[in-house]
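quick one before i forget lol
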Amino acid sequence: MDDSSRRLKLSELAEQYNLQYRGDGDTLIDGVGTLSAASGSQLSFLSNAAYREQLTQTQAGAVLVSANDAEHCPVNVLVADDPYVSYARIAARFDPRRVLNPGIHPSASIDPGATLGNNVHVGANAVIGPGCNIADACTIGPGCVLTADCKLDVACRLEANVTLCDGVTIGKRSIIHAGAVIGSDGFGLAFDQDRWVKIPQLGTVIMGDDCEVGANTTIDRGAIGDTILEDDVRLDNQIQIGHNVIIGAHTAMAGRVGISGSTQIGKYCMFAGSSGTVGHIQIADRTTVNFCSVVTKSITQPGTVWSAALPAQPLRDWNRSVAHLRKLEKLARRVLKLEKSTQGTTEK
């Protein structure tokens, strides 16, 4: 995309995204930037009150703000009910990354039994196996491997070196980032006296529409049934999803989350970084699990927030806390003994 196609007047942005503007509507916007670093031709935003001081000093060409913050902005503004959401929508049009044209790279290997729709891009050294069905407007990056019988719905995008194993289905407009592996074998083993016996993983992975899977994330195929991600599930980088997990629509997970096998997670849930679950439990809709917390039992009440991690503190304080924890059992026995003694005195 050339620079001229990305450049828009402030008034044009306001019209296209149904926003109000205040200031010079002829100001040309050709990119985005932070409040502290944006230039006079870039758009910024304020959605966190912690950055309000930066708003008063910004040199941006315009800032997306709420109505309450508009009067404190020294430059042009676009007024939005939710500045962060509006920024997300507008910023996409200023993405400087190259748009890949339809076509098949000469080094790509496509099995004769595979089917490709219209306007598909297949990058260098990609491999598309037998029975794969690639719908219109999909992008398959360099080095991707689709082993067999995979299905990509309309406008999916696979970045470089993504692996889709047998039978994986990806819904419309979904994005799989570099290095992700979808549909590898789940960790299914049975112990027979003195050795492990591998349990065949006979299911696959089914993902809904508008999903996103981060770089180097792995999603295991089901052991008998399927591993399922419903519509609009968003996974960050380096996440592990075990076999037969079901993740409800609009759920989001930050980096290094680990979900053990056969866990069922509701809709609109949020998992912070390095959190996770044990297997075979159920998580109610709109549950939030905080950083480094592990859920060990089913959560049945929707809309609750769970936390199990201790925040960092100075080393001296941490050592003191650990010392107290080590004495906790002894202290508990003393309290129990004291309670029994007190109870006996009261009864007399």
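fyi The mean pLDDT is 95.
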